[in-house]
Design goal:
Layout (H helix, E strand, L loop, with lengths): L4 H6 L3 H6 L6 E3 L12 H10 L7 E5 L2 E2 L6 E5 L5 E5 L1 H9 L3 E4 L7 H14 L3 E8 L14 E18 L21 E6 L3 E4 L3 E6 L6 E8 L4 H11 L4 H4 L8 H19 L4 H11 L22 E4 L5 E4 L5 E5 L2 E5 L4 H8 L4 E2 H8 L3 H13 L3 E4 L3
Antiparallel strand pairs: 1-10, 2-3, 2-6, 4-5, 6-7, 7-12, 8-9, 8-10, 8-11, 8-12, 13-17, 13-18, 14-15, 15-16
GO molecular function, one term: metal ion binding
Keywords: Iron, Metal-binding
Protein name: Cupin
Length: 394
Amino acid sequence: MTTDVPAVVAHLGEEFLAQVYGRTYRHFPGAPGRFAGLLGWDDLNALLTHHRLELPRLRLSAGGEALPQHAYSAPVTTRRSTVWHRLRPAELHRHLAEGATLVLDAIDELHPGVGHLAQELERHLRTGVQVNAYASWTPEEGFGVHWDDHDVLVLQLEGAKRWRIHGATRQAPLHRDTDVPEPPPDEPLAELVLNAGDMLYLPRGWWHAVAASEGVHSLHLTCGMQTTTGADLLQWLSEDLRRETNVRSDLPRFGTEEEKTDFVRSLGDLVMKQFEDGTLLDRFLTMRDATDRARLVPSLPYVEGVPPDPSLVVHLVTARARLHRDREGRVVLMAGGEEWTFSPQAAPVLALLVDGGRHRLDTLARAAGLRVGQVAHLVSALVDGEVAAVGRAE
């Protein structure tokens, strides 16, 4: 049985986006097998076995503090004098049995199934997503009562975990902020147990504490969602306005009071003109989507371009690509910080790729009435731009 990723995303539909997202927590009970096939203990063991995972990507946490790396690993010096840390399974087991929590950051970059989940969430929520894995065995709280500077969606994969949710004490706190949130009240706003198959959404800034206190070990994923705030909009606008002479000009440090007033007023007029433009927010969000970091997926062995092989499968490695027509009717693709312009005949190919999924070259060619070689040439440009990848069908 495999995880139905579209069903997971379906829980985050219009009602969720309008009434829950960024506002309050939501518990999504589910059947125990809902996440079967996504990530299990064997998968986690394999990742720890076959990857050299260094601190802080792999860490053990207890009482809100990271354990020193030497407590559960030993340094190994290669013959080229590089050093890496090899896990010591017995010491790893001991610390976990004594209450430490195992954390593996960005597991979406290591595990295909989790990576697919992250990309679908990115496509739906139009924001970057990083997935971390947490495993714990005891009622000890690995992190204490804390808050995150990003929204999270929690998927309970195995076992159970108790969550104490205290709510927020500062609205929309940031990683770089002018103040820190006040401590939360002692009594939680809600207390619930996530069992295998359950999901939980928490907005950023909500204090919470988590423990595997139900007598069973726990394995869960936390999908952290990148914030896009007014501060980001203002930062982008300041960069965008560098095209204006007044913005590039030196401040009139030694000018008269009238010159200083005129200078500040001119900057204010420029900014207000932008704020009065009803397209400002859409332009900013389009830029965010178009510059979304693509995921790392090489296309070996096709280092000299994509061959016209009908059976090759292609997919985009960014979930937030933007597609539009220019004034001449040509198709413009914006993805991964790059921009490509194609003839109108390429529109069906690009539309299928932007919608997601993996597509054979011959399927794309039929959709557009093009030859397979023409589609292969188009895809080669996207592979060179690091926003697409090709391979054999599974």
